Amino acid sequence: MAIFEKDKEYIAGTYARFPVELSEGNGSLIYGEDEKEYIDLASGIAVNTFGMADDEWVEAVTVQASMLGHTSNLYYTKPCADLAQMLCERTGMKKVFFGNSGAEANECAIKAARLWALKNKGEGNSTIITLKNSFHGRTITTLAATGQDNFHTDFGPFTPGFVYAEANNLESVKELAESNNCAAIMMETVQGEGGVLPLTEEFVKGVCEIAKEKNMLVIIDEVQTGNGRTGKLYSYMHYGITPDIVSTAKGLAGGLPLGCTMLGEKVKDILTPGSHGSTFGGNPICCAGAISILSRLDDEMLDGVTKRSEYIISRLSECKKVKSISGKGLMLGIECEKPAKEVIASAMEKGVLVISAKTKVRLLPPLNIPFELLEMAMDKLIEAIEE
Length: 387
Ligand SMILES: *Cc1c(COP(=O)(O)O)cnc(C)c1O
Known about the structure:
single chain, alpha/beta, Aspartate Aminotransferase, domain 1, Aspartate Aminotransferase, domain 2, 2 domains, seven-stranded mixed sheet, four-stranded mixed sheet, 12 helices, 17 strands, 19% strand, binds pyridoxal-5'-phosphate
């Protein structure tokens, strides 16, 4: 049976896939079954931090896989402890919890915030403010946290206790904080799925002020923006704030499933044995992959992200059929005159992989994409936008 038919026959219909079968990749180049070459500007949705089959990452992961794979969290393993230390030292957060995905990282953030509120503010302070147009995951609770009405149908009853503020509108946050007994506010600094929309510095800092006044925690969802994607190790670092909880996943382990919830001073000891857990979480193989990625996300690499971003923006700004460019670092949204769908299909035809975010074309290239490939990709993408 051909792959498209087999997929349709045996796989639940949750994905509207592009009609392309990918079979191999190397860095920022991916090859289709038919040997067609693609320059990858999507990184598997911001997951393959250094592209496909990155040498150091493959080495780290295969050495670990051949030595010690899954153990469960009933035992200690070195990669897990080393990665946790590395994350805390690089962020100033105090402790971490490892899960397997972005949604789980947010679930843990929500549980930690509610438990903190119960212990520090008493019963009835469990409400969490999130932002309209946000995206926090696909579980029943993270769907509820997602501030988009179209995610709140069909699967009810949803987890109660979420209210939604307008992004970049401090009055809206203030009002909700006044009229609810809140545990926390949770936000993405750049709304990824919502259309690559960054929050303003004034807003992010203002939210932290309100949180301080109201004794609420600040949770930053860095599932997409984290791990160097925006040109800082974590995107909250652009704003000079200290969040109480940071969740991340996607790019953390460079292509393996690993989620992480980082806990700051106030919440570092809130989770105790039995209060939370994960069978796979902190798997040594995923952690070894993450150590390989994180240890190379140094200032030089992050500068490279900013330089590549500036190059992309300068190329696209010259394009008359580009209406706007939004985002930060190598997380960019392009509003084109043509519908995003057509641009994406045409770019794919020309050998460039890009994806969408709402009505925009979204770029999430590997953070180390060589400039020559980026230049070729821009030539082709601009053709796709202009033709
Ligand atoms: C992708 C994403 C999630 C969900 O991550 P999964 O690994 O798919 O569960 C949550 N929050 C943000 C901001 C994301 O971009």
